[in-house]
Design a protein that fits this description.
alpha+beta, two-stranded antiparallel sheet, about 45% helix
Amino acid sequence: MLLVLVAAIAVLAIVFGYPLLCYLSPLTACRRCDGWGHATKTGRDGQLRRGKDCRRCRTTGKRVRIGRRIYERAAEVHRLGSK
């Protein structure tokens, strides 16, 4: 019984927590460049150097969360359907 209660609470936390996170913080760090906006490379002297610009995040270091994209697409469909 306790295990079912814990599982139900965990599911509710995920179902209501992720949309809240997407609402409060729609952007997150880019996974390819780790939020730097560009690649890093090491020079011959061992110092970190700036590499090429990240094409995935277009040098911003941020990307839109998947949940936010889903919400925006659903809002667009709703807006177009109610014209």
